[in-house]
User: Fold these one by one.
Assistant:
Number 1:
Amino acid sequence: MKTVVTFGELMLRLAPEGYLRFVQADRLQATFGGGEANVAVSLANFGLNARFVTCLPAHEIGQAAVNSLRRYGVDTSYIARTGERVGIYYLEKGASQRPSKVIYDRAYSAIAQVGPDDLDWDAAFAGADWFHFTGITPALGDNVAAACLTACRKAKEKGLTVSCDLNFRKKLWTSEKAGQVMGQLMPYVDVCIANEEDAEKVFGIRADNTDVTGGKLDRAGYEQVARKLTERFGFHTVAITLRTSLSASDNQWAAMLYENGAAHFSKSYNVHIVDRVGGGDSFGAGLIYAKLAGYDPQAALEFAVAASCLKHAVEGDYNMMSVAEVQALAGGDGSGRVQR
Amino acid sequence: MKTVVTFGELMLRLAPEGYLRFVQADRLQATFGGGEANVAVSLANFGLNARFVTCLPAHEIGQAAVNSLRRYGVDTSYIARTGERVGIYYLEKGASQRPSKVIYDRAYSAIAQVGPDDLDWDAAFAGADWFHFTGITPALGDNVAAACLTACRKAKEKGLTVSCDLNFRKKLWTSEKAGQVMGQLMPYVDVCIANEEDAEKVFGIRADNTDVTGGKLDRAGYEQVARKLTERFGFHTVAITLRTSLSASDNQWAAMLYENGAAHFSKSYNVHIVDRVGGGDSFGAGLIYAKLAGYDPQAALEFAVAASCLKHAVEGDYNMMSVAEVQALAGGDGSGRVQR
Amino acid sequence: MKTVVTFGELMLRLAPEGYLRFVQADRLQATFGGGEANVAVSLANFGLNARFVTCLPAHEIGQAAVNSLRRYGVDTSYIARTGERVGIYYLEKGASQRPSKVIYDRAYSAIAQVGPDDLDWDAAFAGADWFHFTGITPALGDNVAAACLTACRKAKEKGLTVSCDLNFRKKLWTSEKAGQVMGQLMPYVDVCIANEEDAEKVFGIRADNTDVTGGKLDRAGYEQVARKLTERFGFHTVAITLRTSLSASDNQWAAMLYENGAAHFSKSYNVHIVDRVGGGDSFGAGLIYAKLAGYDPQAALEFAVAASCLKHAVEGDYNMMSVAEVQALAGGDGSGRVQR
Amino acid sequence: MKTVVTFGELMLRLAPEGYLRFVQADRLQATFGGGEANVAVSLANFGLNARFVTCLPAHEIGQAAVNSLRRYGVDTSYIARTGERVGIYYLEKGASQRPSKVIYDRAYSAIAQVGPDDLDWDAAFAGADWFHFTGITPALGDNVAAACLTACRKAKEKGLTVSCDLNFRKKLWTSEKAGQVMGQLMPYVDVCIANEEDAEKVFGIRADNTDVTGGKLDRAGYEQVARKLTERFGFHTVAITLRTSLSASDNQWAAMLYENGAAHFSKSYNVHIVDRVGGGDSFGAGLIYAKLAGYDPQAALEFAVAASCLKHAVEGDYNMMSVAEVQALAGGDGSGRVQR
Amino acid sequence: MKTVVTFGELMLRLAPEGYLRFVQADRLQATFGGGEANVAVSLANFGLNARFVTCLPAHEIGQAAVNSLRRYGVDTSYIARTGERVGIYYLEKGASQRPSKVIYDRAYSAIAQVGPDDLDWDAAFAGADWFHFTGITPALGDNVAAACLTACRKAKEKGLTVSCDLNFRKKLWTSEKAGQVMGQLMPYVDVCIANEEDAEKVFGIRADNTDVTGGKLDRAGYEQVARKLTERFGFHTVAITLRTSLSASDNQWAAMLYENGAAHFSKSYNVHIVDRVGGGDSFGAGLIYAKLAGYDPQAALEFAVAASCLKHAVEGDYNMMSVAEVQALAGGDGSGRVQR
Amino acid sequence: MKTVVTFGELMLRLAPEGYLRFVQADRLQATFGGGEANVAVSLANFGLNARFVTCLPAHEIGQAAVNSLRRYGVDTSYIARTGERVGIYYLEKGASQRPSKVIYDRAYSAIAQVGPDDLDWDAAFAGADWFHFTGITPALGDNVAAACLTACRKAKEKGLTVSCDLNFRKKLWTSEKAGQVMGQLMPYVDVCIANEEDAEKVFGIRADNTDVTGGKLDRAGYEQVARKLTERFGFHTVAITLRTSLSASDNQWAAMLYENGAAHFSKSYNVHIVDRVGGGDSFGAGLIYAKLAGYDPQAALEFAVAASCLKHAVEGDYNMMSVAEVQALAGGDGSGRVQR
């Protein structure tokens, strides 16, 4: 069984029930999520050996975060139990023209205060095949960026494949800072994942003729972005997710994979959204799985897009889908007929 | 008031709330359902005298099953209180490309262990006008098939109209076994109901040029299936429901009625799904009601399709719609405007 | 800060959870709502000083009604604590072809038994800029219509702008009675709001060539209705909301504003409905806000339509949207992309 | 199987969840209850044929009330579907020193507006053995009192045993009015049930040396009250429940039965309260059952007290206990050990 | 109407439902609370004009905090909308021998980062009669202690009565630091409130012969503590609450009031606990109300103890009791009989 | 870290919310439990390495069962994924005099159909220190008893300590059968755990002068039972839990430990019950932990009793307590004071 290590923050996700707004709620669904943890859970659900590395406080809220991963089979042995608080993000689910809203309360969390010796990368990477992180992790602070850099170096030394989802968050850092920090990390990265905005926001690389808010997608433009990224950083693979947001309830979802100078485009899905958060992460997990399973580029892309398409119909950050379920959709059955 | 008797299994339906997957749920909605019980409840809601025949244990879970029928006015006097367990089906509601999933835990249930003398058909059929069952009931075991045969014979002797929804379930029996057992029951049946796959799966009768997974419907093909069924078994009426599954969230829904050599096609509805389970049963109930009320074939068909269209917007197995509500839709008002 | 006074009934709204029908529910969501209170809450959410005038019993259910307004910043100082009961409306949420259903239990409520001296209009209007009511209020009884008339007179004397949403409810009064009572109130009204049916139902004024149930909208027809209304009653502004009900789940939503002989038409939105109740009220609130903020007619109309479009994605009667959120949609971003 | 007819109001009971106060709740548990309906359900749960007579509106809220009875096997055939509203009582559950609180909203309900010809007593009493009502029913209005009187006369003519629980409610009428109306009904009554206050509040008959608020019980005093009641009205049996309210969470519960000049006192139970409402009604049902089953006075009393003791551990108005369960407690097992 | 100003932190309180432990919960009840806010709400429920001063972020979580106060009538006009985060406390409700557990996540909250000019004390104190704070507020940081000192000085200048509940929290500061900071504030305080441990933990003043864990109360000891406090700081009144914790489910609750050299002891209540948090705050609110209403010392004490006794039967931090309800208990009716 | 292996059935536990009876519930709490799994979870919560051995189906309900263990850190690597169904037990929580009720639906479950080669004991016992099972496991069928015997033999061969909780269940087998099967297993057992009835029900060994239903405990009698058990089977240790069931809400709880000819009696706790199921299992887990930690007999007993005392205040089968929490109670603090 292949082993994948991911590194990042695991937050408590507090969300009003159904479509209530924050100010209407007197109960909050309390689950956990975060880009890299989401990838770990999805990979564990695919049957891989997934290890998640982070810092979490020793108290019961930290323990509940750990348990949310163990429940789905993620190996939590490499989590440092340090710090005082679990980062939080408040999520209000949107509908129709009303957008979803996220309020972050993640400053001063355990991982944001990680020290240079808190994490044991040698142990975490022992026998591992792949290391994954996203642009959110180094954005949490210079100390976390330093930990990221250490991890990348160690991973490379040990021969792991390294993937990174650019995942730019403007509330965490500026484009300038992101470009500088991420620029140092990219040389270690083999597989770069981005959405339609990230390349521009982080590295100033943009697709010509693309109007994101208008949802206009231009194949040639995306290919161009991937090529430029590859040229600048020497990536083996670049994957770009292509979301057309018709409303908070309905999106179109597809992706492009660029490898060895060739761009592959996936089928496009019309998704009726149950929970949109973690959609990108589930794409990343699908791609990592498919790569480790030796799929060819088009098949890997279709698997990753089908996985993330299905994530939009799953509550919570974590993608609770099996390989068989993803393959069924990638194989063409999107009819949603009852399985009985 | 007309009296309809239905016979089958009533199961405990355990479903996670909302769109949670099985492995995410720590609470389950506990309702009851089963093809023939669903028909009985729908008919009681239409104001008919509906009797449901089954076996259920004497303990409180069995009592809760009985109560779920009494609550909506079904006559439960003919239920034998025997056996040890209430059959269960676990239901996970799908959305978008993620299909709904059913896990059966119905083996060894009270009805599956029915003995030859447990049910009193003379009492159940006293003064009754119609007997209805589905292909699920005889699939539960040879003893249950025998009870079905007894019921069909008795019903015919007493002059009741007999209807059967083929309802093939591949997890319960093979096509071969189904064809053999159902073949013995069909001679007693006046009104045969099927979905677009059943005729082929049970009797090997297929519509030419129909691609079910592709959702391609061909009117002539369905007419052909109905004609073949009629020719083989001497049915008075054949009704075929026509579902096009765009996704787990959106379906198209229509039906065909074949009678006296003529095929009638209903309007087609675009349904945004609240709960898809019981959709076929609600069609059957609508058809039985309309037939007993003396509707002409087209009107009967439109009533049945409208009833089942509305069922897709009702939670649970049972169709909670009145005659007036169904007539309003069949009469053309599908605008869903607030009634106030 | 501008001050708006609204007058009407605040009811307890009892609704089954999710899409359960009344007869399936053993728990009811208990919120509060009513046309004019909805306007007051929406205006308070826009940052205006909103006063709501009504009668409510002194007991805890009356207090809970008051609290539901205070919570969102409405000034409840002018509510008379009289009477025995809080009016109730039971709401069953529809979906797809199944319409939403309202059962009123509002007779004998505190406001329906308002006496001539229960309300202190001089206090309520002190320093106020705008008075708003709907056709529901005078429909509650002759005593309430008298209170309405008193309020209109007082408001005019004090120089307030007066707006009225015709809001015809056939369960409360006949068209004949409505026409007579409303005819007496209209001379005090500056801004008249109506939906596509109200003008005909209340005053017999109809748009030529309009087939409401078919959802066919004719711009010229609506302009004609607005012109006739203006000619008969001397309104400064007439606004007509234009709803095309595709189903209980999906509507199209737009509006027309007629002022100074010119008709302005808004963008049209495809709304996927979370909660349709209060949609018209949120339009009224948007219009009042925009007028008080000095928007030009087209901008005012677009603000009001965007506000009410968003309301359809909010649970409960009250529109929980800020000015910034409404402006974002009116300004063109209806993509529903996550705000983070 | 013995048949018992009860007559009264069935109300919608709206209660915040758990121990929330009214002003804290945004959801309400929606069940149904009312003194005589509670007796009917308890008797149906004991296996008797229980008919409940009342008026309820034809709409869905009225239907839900009917269904709540059918669910537990009560015969609802004799309910007149008339009127506009279902009476409501709001219930806030107390705890420790905080008392439970009831707010009635039952005026103008269907039964409160019963007309002289709405109810068919000949049908309701056909083949029946016992008629039961409480003092709440005639308190609803002179028309309801008249219906009560008609029922009592008819019941007596047909040879039914008649029981009445005095159940004085000061919010419904004065002691003076109660005494006058109840005084006319008592001559028809065979079995009179009262709590420790009713006899004084309705008929001015009091136990000497009894301090209710102090919870001081004096056996001789209660015997004296029963004797006076018997002497005045010629009752065959008088039963008085004896509650010592230590707090809203803990009560002591016992009763006395007076028959043929002899007073019998039951065991006393220390009850830890789940839901106290309907405690008296469950005693009445227990007594009726035991009388119809031919129990001797002490056994009948112990059965009735055990039944009502158990009711305090059941949510809702209805007592959901079987004869076997009551007998187990009456027989001495109050240890509450798990039954498995 | 008297006006009381309180100053402190308002936190989001996240609690598992019922008796679930933190690691078992996937939903959290989201209410708000904090010592001084609790006092403000209780006073508003008593009908006083209560102003709460704090800092809260401008985002929706901050707004929900504000709304929780407005809902119950607290004047929130003096709250500064500053900072990034709302402080949180996680609460796990205990039962029997399992204690309740609190995990604080309040560092870096808006109020903890209050600046010297963020709060407008002149406005907040305009026309006010009383100022209240607790020892938690100055424990939040030196800047908050400075704000406290400013408030005390201003309050004294304007002639307000000042009360302080010592409320020592060992997770916020040491006894040494507390003694030093509180020592500077006490000269401004007229009414000092403490529990059985505070005086010792903050000022090293202890009751002789008191064994807190054993729950042994010694009247003379408490009087001695109060006298020492009075002598050191010149308080007008000292009140000490006396809790005997039998278990997490059952406590005894009483208090002592020391004034003009005389100690008054209240009745003692056996409380069966619904929610113990805020018990001390409700005592403070009761005392402030009673003092402002001119009660004599014994009556004031009994009112305060009855108020806080009832709080233990109310969910959430806020005491939702009216003056009439408190008076009923203080007046002797603790029987918890249903109010109907 | 010590390693403990337990073997038994893990069932889906379906329980109405709060104190609802089965026939009132339309939602069920869905957790998992079973004697030996409960022990495993408790030990994992104590920080030991706990392995649970069973059979569970490969489908999602089986997976959810596995996940419920992984979540709390139990090693599920040795669970065979075989069979069709997850055993179920329905649990209705009692209160006051109403007892809790269990309905088993566990026949034909995966473990009940275990084959001779399904389980890999060599792997499960590798490096392990202790093996634990209860009398429920061999009661599931002769095949399961055979598996139990194999496990016991293997455990002994490998030098593990073996413990057994007699746990007689009369619904699973007769005393005669139990005595015969258990008699074969006892020779492998070192530590025997029983409640006050088990020894008599399984082996006919009874305490003289003990009246269980009356709750009368006689120290000498229990010592006698332990001595007889030891003499017959050569146990090293016998522990007997002593429950006095005052009601379903309140129990007294204590235990005796017999070792080396000496009987040790624990403190007795008055427990106010949150969830009584799993009380015995938590005692067993406490005892195993304490033994492995080298506690002396009295300390081990006190730890085990404190652990199980706390379990009564925890929802669900699993005991969610840490060693520190148990030690705090065993050390004397049962005051339940808030930990903050």
Note: The two ends of chain E are 30 Å apart (CA to CA).
Number 2:
Amino acid sequence: FVPPGVLPLCRQPLAWSRARRQPPGPPLAPCRAFSNNKILVELDESSGVATMKFKSPPVNSLNLDFLTEFCISLEKLENDRACRGVILTSAIPKIFSSGLDITEMCGKSTEHYAEFWRAVQEMWLRMYSSNMVTVAAVNGSSPAGGCLIALTCDYRIMVDNPKFSIGLNEAQLGIVAPFWFKDTFVNTVGHRVAERSLQLGFLYPAPEAHRFGLIDELVPEEKLQEKAAAVMAQWLALPDHARQLTKSMMRKTVLDRLVAHREEDIQNFISFISKESIQKSLRMYMEMLKKKS
Amino acid sequence: FVPPGVLPLCRQPLAWSRARRQPPGPPLAPCRAFSNNKILVELDESSGVATMKFKSPPVNSLNLDFLTEFCISLEKLENDRACRGVILTSAIPKIFSSGLDITEMCGKSTEHYAEFWRAVQEMWLRMYSSNMVTVAAVNGSSPAGGCLIALTCDYRIMVDNPKFSIGLNEAQLGIVAPFWFKDTFVNTVGHRVAERSLQLGFLYPAPEAHRFGLIDELVPEEKLQEKAAAVMAQWLALPDHARQLTKSMMRKTVLDRLVAHREEDIQNFISFISKESIQKSLRMYMEMLKKKS
Amino acid sequence: FVPPGVLPLCRQPLAWSRARRQPPGPPLAPCRAFSNNKILVELDESSGVATMKFKSPPVNSLNLDFLTEFCISLEKLENDRACRGVILTSAIPKIFSSGLDITEMCGKSTEHYAEFWRAVQEMWLRMYSSNMVTVAAVNGSSPAGGCLIALTCDYRIMVDNPKFSIGLNEAQLGIVAPFWFKDTFVNTVGHRVAERSLQLGFLYPAPEAHRFGLIDELVPEEKLQEKAAAVMAQWLALPDHARQLTKSMMRKTVLDRLVAHREEDIQNFISFISKESIQKSLRMYMEMLKKKS
């Protein structure tokens, strides 16, 4: 019963079988692990599950290099018939990702801002529309863009530690989350929670994030990877084709909105970030961060 | 304060009185009970409440005959000025309705698929836009299309038995719930619960369905009809005209979407269901069901 | 990251500082308190917080005079650079506001209905789009239009007393909440709760309103103003510019809908309210109220 306008997403043959996928077609090129500067990728071919571990010290901030590597890794997995799901987690203690790298938005050229923003959009578009099952195993704090990565996943598990917090806290920095951050947030926690949280730039400690539905499940730190694997197995038990079409149906409106306004959104970002008042604020914020550390 | 674009739905005169409706106009034709092959209908003229009992063994599956009789019965009640509300329930133990009849989607002609799908649409359109108060008294399991019927009602009461489950589990069968199933579901449980439930094809045991808001109220089996009557009385205490306009205002966007894309939706269904891979899956599923029983 | 289409709302310079705002520009005209016939307004210049106290006995009903004074007071504050937030509360015991004044809708001329309805729209448009932080300190019952005022605020605190109730109970009066009341309600409590509550014209006792998210927080009566001030301080800790842009982004769709259909909505109101059946109902309702008191 394919709804009108749903794009064909089918990479997988329809199968009743819940058994491990037996990929059809020619034998696959071996693909077990690859890594680049900022992300470690491991693929377990027997389960079809990859893990992407963010390893960009000190805080996995999303700079242009990270975003580029992220999208390349994701595309590799997306096109790899041995891969059906991906778990996102951090290789750095206490932090999942600190979000967009402010140095990319400060004192750079218009061209740089455009390139950076396009990379942020690209990351969001690929994750939110991924054919793979995507699970965030949030093992540390995850503000702003870090929270966004988690929001794009199909399921979010977080370490049950009130010292780890998560949220779209852009307003606290004097900036505004773009409309597609907001749309993803509203789709997850509903309009009222989103309205209040975004205006106050709330960072929720893990237990509170769970109460509001921003996080689906809390687990002790030592159980995180095990739980992520179990959740993944549950999602992979479904026939890929039907699951993918359903996911696309749920997310299409919000995805289409950015696709339709992508260039406009880049121009908006550039003109906002280029304001002297904003530049000054970001510089002050960076000073504050330096003093802190 | 009628919002723009709301259709005139008024069959009832506006009345402050909470007392039993005194129908204006000429005396009514007697209408106490009628039944057809698959549905028993009883109308209590003193309360204005009809009960439609599904009686299509073994599992009240929604085949073309059932859907046709359902729509005819519903239309009769809708046009009967003595009837203001209808309670839907099952005459078969342990099952409310098993949903769309798979035999209608397997090995049939294109014309048959079109006729069947139009009947499913018709059932949904009539129920979701009904001028009557509609209460689902869910006294058994209610997967897929069975769940949809419950979702179209104004209120859902379910027997408090974890052995009875309910949900839109299409993805488990390798098929995709159409967009209007999804819209109805989102309107009831919100975007996030719908996204997760539809992708996983979840069937919720009654208590869990209640926790997520898919079911409004749980009662012991022996209290079900009594509770349904009490709920109905509460809804009928409101002036029909205002209640109907309000209901229409809440559901119009979603109703209009199917009306605008009805033929397209039929064509989509036909081309999806006619695929050899889907036919094969449905055959395998029916085999499995046969072995089970 | 300004989303496309967001209007520039900026009255405040961007500031990292959480400290008390130091208003730039020429010295301010003194503005401490002003009042008119129906509303007491006090502005604490040191905190930037104004309080608007409704004082229109017996029940703060929203007649044309009240609405006019409300909008004038609000505009004054909105344009006053010393004012960043406003707390709405009642100076009359046990009632916040009884909602739209029925006498304005009964036995009046078409011109009067149009003027009245435009004033109701104006109040909603100004409140829902206010640049200021708006907190409702609900210290009494608040049906219909009274509930609407609370819904337009950024945050709702209510006295924890089950004798005080709140809700959009229009259906109980045989009338229909306009689409923009409905949109505001859906944005606050979600589609399902709104659908059920509006059809049944529910008035929720404060504790239940809190459970459904219609009210954000309950406090003992003697703590209400203190809590409102504390909440206000929390919201004012954010940079105004980012908070305002975020608020606008969240509410724009719903605001634009009324702006686009404003005249149509007035005509709809006039033709609905002018019906003899509606006039009769409203007269009966007023009789009932008179007998009660």
Note: Residues 1-31 of chain C have pLDDT under 50 and may be disordered.
